[in-house]
Design brief:
387 residues; alpha/beta; Aspartate Aminotransferase, domain 1; Aspartate Aminotransferase, domain 2; 2 domains; 7-stranded mixed sheet; 13 strands; 13% strand; globular; binds pyridoxal-5'-phosphate
Length: 387
């Protein structure tokens, strides 16, 4: 392809960080010294693979203030969320499980599966800004759930939840508390102990690591049944020969994300503010503008303009953005996050997400703003001709 669109969809996935790629190459047989091995083998090849996995585990743990033995490698965030919810539920009698109304489908769907298996499911409401509704949360906790899951940062709005407070309240009510921190990793400070959660989900591909790698960080007091049984890898919680290359990449990506997080957060927040100002001048409604949010995410709509149409036009003009949530964009329904916030479906259908990342330059943002104003002008003209 001769022309590469400007990538403004970093919450969907991120390009592999070149330093991560370098670290992975020997394990893909693509650089000297070529490395391979089954981390369970009791010979030199196996020991090298085990050492690489252990080193990566220590890096992932360090990025979130956890102990290495609390890190269970998985195939990604979806598996880690499923492992916590279904794995913990499998060791209990069916009871009450509570998840927020704005969770990613890979939390909502396993919670619904538990419901079909005899659990009672409560979705905790959010306010108009997308923050967990404190009164509804108290009401849910009064019913004494065994499992509670509330995401740290929302993939669409970028809203940050006060997970430390929610986790403390849930623990006091006798629940194990899990948080999906996939979108938070590398963007905000994360500390497993300070948050006081019992489970935390991470994913490599959102932070410059490879697709198909992630982790559940889990307090050892939580009893979990594995989703995948077999050879007993990952403390028996996730059998299967470890994907050493991906795990090595995940470890390095965590280290890199941690090292640049503070500077990047400032840089991206200032670019994000520029985008928001320009959008505001065009009459856009910025969702969750009044809440604490990730520094890189803008979720908005312009009255009378369909989100899919706008994203299509921007794509043809050389800018890759998302309409609604990229993870569920095969689904034409308006964003469940916006509906949970009480946004009218007609407005939610206009939603577009711009998410920035480490390669987003100020010049990209300025070109985006210019192009966006032109595209919106064209669409508004079309709408007025049609009216
Ligand atoms: C908040 C959130 N949780 C979980 C996931 C799933 O992670 P993975 O793609 O690694 O399965 C995503 C990915 O889009 C996400 O945004």
């Amino acid at each position: 392809m001769s022309f590469a669109p400007v990538y403004l969809d970093w919450n969907a996935t991120t390009p592999l960080d070149p330093v991560v790629r370098e670290a992975m190459l020997p394990w893909l047989g693509a650089a000297e010294p070529v490395r391979f091995g089954n981390a369970s083998s009791r010979h030199e090849y196996g020991r090298q693979a085990r050492a690489a996995v252990d080193e990566a585990r220590a890096r992932v743990a360090a990025a979130v203030g956890a102990h290495a033995t609390e890190v269970i490698f998985t195939s990604g965030g979806s598996e880690a969320n499923n492992l916590f919810l279904k794995g913990a539920a499998a060791t209990m009698k069916p009871a009450l499980v509570a998840v927020s109304a704005v969770e990613h489908p890979c939390v909502r769907e396993p919670a619904r599966q538990l419901q079909r298996g005899g659990w009672t499911l409560r979705e905790i409401a959010v306010d108009a800004e997308g923050r967990v509704d404190i009164a509804d949360c108290q009401a849910v906790l009064a019913a004494r759930p065994r499992l509670v899951s509330v995401m740290l940062a929302n993939n669409e709005t970028g809203v940050l939840q006060d997970v430390a407070t929610l986790a403390a309240q849930a623990r006091a009510a006798g629940a194990w508390f899990h948080t999906d921190a996939v979108q938070a990793l590398g963007k905000v400070e994360l500390d497993f102990r300070t948050l006081g959660v019992q489970g935390m989900t991470l994913s490599a591909h959102k932070i410059g690591g490879p697709l198909g790698a992630g982790a559940l960080v889990v307090d050892k007091r939580v009893e979990l049944a594995p989703l995948i049984a077999g050879g007993g890898q990952e403390r028996g919680l996730r059998s299967g020969t470890e994907n050493v290359a991906a795990i090595v990449g995940f470890g390095v990506a965590c280290e890199r994300a941690l090292a640049r997080r503070a500077d990047e957060a400032l840089r991206l927040a200032s670019l994000r503010d520029e985008v928001e100002q320009a959008l505001g001048a065009l009459g856009a409604r910025i969702f969750s503008a009044g809440a604490l949010r990730l520094p890189n995410t803008v979720f908005f709509a312009i009255a009378g303009i369909d989100g899919e149409t706008l994203v299509g036009k921007l794509d043809r003009a050389g800018f890759a953005c998302a309409s609604g949530s990229a993870c569920s964009s095969a689904n034409p329904e308006p964003s469940h996050t916006l509906l949970a916030m009480g946004v009218e479906p007609a407005v939610a259908r206009g939603a577009v997400r711009v998410s920035l990342g480490r390669d987003t330059a100020a010049a990209d943002v300025r070109r985006f703003i210019e192009t966006f104003a032109r595209v919106v002008g064209e669409l508004k003209n079309l709408a007025s001709v049609a009216a």
